[in-house]
């Protein structure tokens, strides 16, 4: 499954690298970043919006520890027929509880993370996705947590 890749310029790459480090919790969090990049805040926000629209980034916002707040995370996988992959990905990604979704090249070719307000909601959402798509959602609950600072160089 080959998808067109957006063209990123040097400034796009600098923005992507910088926003992975987080933004300060201040009244104008984008001002310092824009200043460090030598651009206006409006251009920074326009570029971030374009990167989202082009699906270079699929989510931009804070990351909350759902489990620490009483909620739950669960890694899930599905075996999706290739001819239905994009349609099923659209159905899965439409759920607000889906934190991120990955295509893989083996039998279980769609992996995603559910983040819900309660542990019971994991079961509810997974079963609802199974009912909606007709494809079983396999759940792999977290047994132990490890903190790995994941960063992708743009």
Structure description:
- This protein has 2 domains: 10-53, Arc Repressor Mutant, subunit A (Orthogonal Bundle); 67-141, Alpha-Beta Plaits (2-Layer Sandwich), CATH 3.30.70.3460.
- With 154 residues, the protein is of the alpha+beta class.
- Strands 2-3-1-4 form a 4-stranded antiparallel β-sheet.
- Helix content is 36%, strand content 16%.
- Strand 2 (98-103) and strand 3 form a beta hairpin.
- It is built from 5 helices and 4 strands.
- The two termini are 22 Å apart.
Percent in helix: 25-40%
Instruction: Give, in order, the helices and strands.
Output: HHHEHEEHE
Total helices: the number is 5
| Domain tally | 2
Write down the Rg.
18 Å
Tell me which CATH architecture of the largest domain applies here: 2-Layer Sandwich
The largest pleated sheet is described as:
4 strands, antiparallel
- Overall body shape: globular
Quick check: average pLDDT? 89
**Euclidean distance between termini CA atoms:** 22 Å
CATH class of the largest domain: Alpha Beta
Tally of DSSP β-strands: 4
Strand line-up in the sheet with most strands:
2-3-1-4
By helix and strand content, what is the structural category? Answer: alpha+beta
Question: What are the low-pLDDT stretches, counting only 5+ consecutive residues below 50?
Answer: none
CATH topology descriptor of the largest domain: Alpha-Beta Plaits
């Amino acid at each position: 499954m080959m998808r067109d890749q957006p063209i990123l310029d040097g400034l796009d790459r600098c923005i992507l690298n910088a926003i992975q480090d987080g933004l300060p919790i201040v009244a104008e969090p984008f001002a310092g970043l824009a200043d460090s990049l030598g651009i206006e805040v409006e251009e920074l926000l326009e570029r971030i919006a374009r990167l989202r629209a082009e699906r270079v980034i699929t989510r931009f916002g804070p990351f909350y520890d759902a489990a620490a707040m009483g909620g739950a995370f669960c890694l899930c996988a599905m075996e999706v027929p290739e001819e239905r992959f994009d349609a099923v990905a659209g159905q899965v990604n439409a759920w607000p509880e889906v934190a991120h979704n990955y295509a893989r090249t083996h039998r279980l070719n769609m992996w995603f993370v559910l983040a819900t307000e309660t542990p019971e909601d994991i079961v509810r959402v997974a079963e609802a996705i199974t009912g909606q798509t007709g494809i079983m959602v396999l759940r792999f609950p977290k047994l132990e947590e490890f903190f790995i600072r994941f960063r992708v160089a743009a």
